[in-house]
Design brief:
Elements (H helix, E strand, L loop, with lengths): L8 E4 L6 E2 L2 E2 L3 H10 L3 E6 L6 H10 L8 E3 H6 L7 E5 L2 H9 L3 E4 L11 E4 L7 H12 L3 E4 L5 E4 L2 E4 L1 H12 L4 E2 L5 H10 L12 E5 L2 H11 L2 E5 L15 E3 L2 H14 L1
Parallel strand pairs: 1-4, 1-13, 4-5, 6-7, 6-8, 8-9, 9-12, 13-14, 14-15
Antiparallel strand pairs: 2-3, 10-11
The structure holds magnesium ion.
């Protein structure tokens, strides 16, 4: 486990690691506190595109984790794929609208009503009011030439009551109806990796994957994202992978975030 001794930044998934539907997983809050206390920077890297950054920071604050400036979402990764001034049809939640506008593009909300004028891109993410009219408007815009961008491809996300349909399920509907393969921005894809490397590099210090550890509950999302970043990965069995479940022996596994934090603290003290 000494391969983690150079880790300075922990990229921490939220759903299934810190919380399940905003209910903290036992010990996770204390684990984040301990990792920070041992000198690690903790960034929360989430494929949740529906909520605004302020809402996600506030939800973390409410369970006892100050997170101002520390949340990186798949909406932010999607916005990197847009140009200033582009008209963007948002088939998703407020988090996408926020990221589109911060990028200097124009957010056109998909309400299911016919839109006036062409759009340059359609960005699709999880929203619970998705319906047939919104599907038709999104697919029509893509067929008319708009780029199709998905915030993430996750078909489900974990809740205390089991898996719930995710943004990837909605994206799949738009893909099927438009006949166009989307570009996907969030974990494990390149745009999120580029965003993280931008955040973690400074003018005098290029991004160093050896100083970064990704922690997540989903091998096909968080594990592949670590591979994209070329950083180490630890799988926690507190989300989509059940406690005690046997996983690929090549993957480092912790029971949960507290289990990992104990390791991180120990390593920091050695340094
Ligand atoms: Mg997760």
């Amino acid at each position: 486990m000494s391969k983690f001794s150079r880790v300075r930044t922990v990229l921490c998934d939220l759903d299934g690691v810190v919380w399940l539907a905003h209910q903290p997983i036992a010990g996770s809050v204390d684990a984040v506190v301990r990792m920070r206390a041992s000198g690690h920077r903790v960034l929360f890297v989430t494929n949740n595109s529906a909520s605004t950054i302020a809402d996600q920071e506030q939800a973390l604050q409410q369970i006892g984790i100050p997170a101002s400036g520390d949340v990186v979402s798949s909406s932010m990764a999607a916005a990197r794929l847009l140009q200033r001034g582009e008209r963007v049809l948002v088939t998703g939640g407020p988090g996408i609208v926020e990221a589109v506008e911060r990028q200097g593009a124009i957010a056109v909300r998909n309400t299911g009503a016919e839109i006036s004028g062409p759009v340059d891109a359609v960005v699709v993410g999880l929203h619970r009011d998705f319906d047939y009219p919104r599907l038709a408007v999104a697919a029509t815009a893509v067929r008319a030439g708009a780029r199709l961008i998905g915030t993430n491809g996750d078909a489900t996300y974990p809740t205390a009551d089991g898996p719930a349909p995710g943004g990837g399920a909605i994206l799949a509907a738009v893909e099927a109806a438009s006949g166009v393969t989307p570009q996907i921005a969030g974990k494990p894809h390149k745009s999120m990796a580029m965003l993280i490397s931008e955040i973690l590099s400074a003018a005098d210090q290029p991004f160093d994957p050896n100083s970064v550890l990704m922690v997540g509950d989903r091998p096909e999302t968080d594990g592949l994202f670590a591979a994209e970043l070329q950083c180490e990965f630890v799988l926690v069995r507190s989300g989509v992978v059940a406690p005690g479940e046997v996983v690929d022996s090549e993957v480092a596994v912790a029971d949960d975030l507290p289990d990992l934090a104990a390791l991180a603290s120990a390593l920091a003290e050695v340094d």
